[in-house]
Write a structure and sequence with these properties.
This protein has no helices and 10 strands. The chain has strands spanning 6-19, 24-39, 44-56, 65-79, 82-94, 106-119, 124-138, 144-162, 165-180, 190-201.
């Protein structure tokens, strides 16, 4: 802490994925980030972190790669029962759905998200969220196979039926658009909607 409402931070984290059942290697992503956490006012807080992300794998056909990464977010609470959150990040991911694939695919891209949570009454609350993702799909050598954009929208209503029981009804819509950068890049575009009814009981 170097100011009354501002903290400086250094963050090192490792994300690892292994397919132990199939004996195939997954990947590791190590992030080295520096940044700030702050509370601008009683209603606004935020964070900003930037640095390097390194992607590696034990697989023989996967090259090590690195790029600039970040995590930035701001929360605004105009009312005690209403919160807006805006965030963005740039990171690596793993795209191969088949763990036995001889040429795994990775993602490298950015995501921007907006979320609004509002409590209408003591028992009813809603959550609306939207995210936009733009990323490259790369093979193990770092060659871009296709590019992808994803628009996603979600809306949920939570009903606190009892003190320890909640029922939620949610809808999630995803619109994914892909285009090939090489011959037979495997582009797969689709639109998908999902309805979910869930119940939670706290013991």
């Amino acid at each position: 802490r170097f100011m009354p409402k501002t903290d400086a931070l250094i963050e090192i984290k490792n994300r690892e994925l292994d397919y132990t059942a199939t004996g195939q290697d997954g990947y590791d992503v190590i992030s080295y980030l520096v940044g700030l956490n702050w509370e601008a006012t009683g209603k606004t807080t935020g964070y900003a972190k930037v640095g390097r992300r390194e992607r590696d794998s034990k697989a023989a056909n996967v090259d090590k790669d690195s790029s600039t990464g970040w995590e930035v977010g701001v929360s605004y609470m105009p009312l005690e029962h209403s919160v807006f959150q805006l965030s963005t990040s740039r990171d690596y991911g793993f795209d191969s759905e088949d763990p036995s694939a001889t040429n795994p695919l990775f993602t490298d891209g950015s995501t921007y998200s907006l979320n609004w949570n509002h409590k209408w009454t003591a028992k009813i609350a809603t959550n609306a969220n939207y995210s936009f993702t733009k990323e490259d799909i790369e093979n193990g050598s770092g060659v871009v196979q296709k590019d992808r954009t994803i628009n996603r929208f979600g809306l949920s209503v939570d009903w606190n039926v009892m003190r320890n029981a909640t029922v939620s009804l949610a809808y999630d819509h995803t619109d994914r658009d892909e285009s090939n950068k090489v011959v037979n890049g495997g582009a797969d575009s689709y639109k998908r909607g999902a309805y979910m009814l869930t119940g939670t009981i706290a013991l």
